[in-house]
Write a structure and sequence with these properties.
The chain is α/β, with parallel strands linked by helices and 378 residues long. It contains twelve helices and twelve strands. It folds into two domains: 118 residues, Alpha-Beta Complex (Aspartate Aminotransferase, domain 1), CATH 3.90.1150.10; 228 residues, Aspartate Aminotransferase, domain 2, CATH 3.40.640.10. The radius of gyration is 21 Å and the shape is globular.
Length: 378
């Protein structure tokens, strides 16, 4: 509990401050997508909720509806060029449910998962849930993968490397070359140890990108990839908890791995992903929220903060900015900002003290209102 989420701590502080009647609060704490789902999603939901699909609220096979799994498999295949059978897709209760099911399936007590700093703050808890040990590794200055640092941490207990691209909190997209180099390393280390080392690729922000080429992902570059994603961000469905896991068909013993993930999904109490939202996304994989809306906020924020003197890597995806904390003490800087009624999250919550995160998925006027306070604080 003492290590619980800094994101939630700041979010709850925002609720308290908004109720104190002392003026506006500019809250950048929680990465909660503000855009409403696309019209196609809303129309599909209305149709499904209207009672015209018999049995929509009943149980289905634990890994999900066959038709939904096929739709997802076809979508991934068209995007990656890797032919994914529908049986290699498992519908999950968001990306969090997917990650926990994967860790339950692959980890023995004491097995290690390398996580790249900065990382989403819940990762160590997900790994710990299933007897694993999270092993953080520092990235390069530009937040790309430091291959030498990763190699130094791989040992006989290493079971996986957890990759998040576009990254929360930095917004960085790992280059194809970085992922290919990581794949070469893991193949070599896997041969040495006589066991598979997985890349678990968390791609919850895979559609929220601001440049070409698009986010490459690991599925197309490494055979032992388990892809995990959700539709919380690209379809604005964070509260509905709908996501999926896809296993590369070239993974050795892929069938047994898939069976283990499905069993874990059930054993952990998820049973199956929400029925009505499985059927919703089945028809909506070709749409997303307006990415340009997030890009405008990114550009406004980056231009202003750079002018004020903040140091940061301009994000290529997601909706976060991860600057260095002026003065070097991220916790103290966040306290200063809170005293100015601006809520940001200290970098130590993402494994990197000395930085802070701004979630710019915020309503109109929030960034403009907060900019004078950022200027005054630095």
């Amino acid at each position: 509990m003492t290590r619980s989420s800094w994101i939630r701590k700041m979010f709850e502080e925002g609720i308290r401050m908004k109720a104190d009647g002392k003026g506006p609060v500019w809250d950048f704490s929680l990465g909660s997508p503000i855009l409403e789902p696309p019209a196609k999603v809303v129309d599909r939901l209305k149709h499904l909720a209207g009672g015209s699909v018999p049995g929509i609220h009943r149980y289905m096979p634990n890994p999900g509806y066959d038709s939904t799994r096929k739709a997802v498999a076809d979508f991934i295949s068209s995007e990656t060029g890797i032919k994914i059978p529908s049986g290699n897709v498992i519908m999950t209760v968001g990306a969090a449910g997917g990650l926990n099911s994967v860790f339950k399936a692959i980890l023995d007590p004491g097995d290690e998962v390398i996580i790249l700093e900065p990382f989403f703050g819940e990762y160590p808890f997900y790994i710990d849930n299933h007897g694993g040990v999270a092993v953080p590794v520092r990235s390069k200055e530009d937040f790309q993968i430091d291959l030498e640092a990763v190699e130094a941490l791989i040992n006989s207990r290493t079971r996986a490397v957890l990759v998040n691209s576009p990254n929360n909190p930095s917004g960085v997209i790992y280059s194809r070359q970085s992922l290919e180099n990581l794949a070469v390393l893991l193949r070599s280390k896997g041969r040495e140890s006589g066991s598979e080392i997985y890349i678990i690729s968390d791609e919850a922000y895979r559609k929220i990108i601001y440049r070409k080429p698009d986010c490459p992902g690991s599925l197309a570059v490494y055979e032992n990839t388990i892809m995990v994603t959700s539709h919380s961000k690209d379809l604005g469905l964070a509260g509905e908890r709908i996501g999926w896991v896809a296993v590369n068909p070239s993974t050795p013993d892929a069938g047994r791995l898939i069976d283990a993930i499905v069993f874990s999904l059930r054993a952990l109490g998820y049973v199956n992903a929400p029925s009505i939202f499985q059927k919703t996304i089945e028809e909506c994989l070709d749409v997303s929220v307006d990415i340009g809306w997030y890009k405008k906020r990114r550009d406004l924020l980056c231009e202003a903060l750079a002018d004020f003197g903040y140091e940061f890597i301009k994000p290529d995806g997601a909706f976060y900015l991860f600057p260095k904390a002026p003065g070097g003490d991220d916790l103290e800087f966040c306290r200063v900002m809170a005293s100015r009624r601006v809520l940001v999250v200290p970098g130590r919550g993402f494994g990197m003290p000395g930085y802070f995160r701004i979630a710019y998925c915020v309503g109109d006027g929030i960034i403009e209102g907060a900019l004078p306070e950022f200027k005054a604080a630095i």
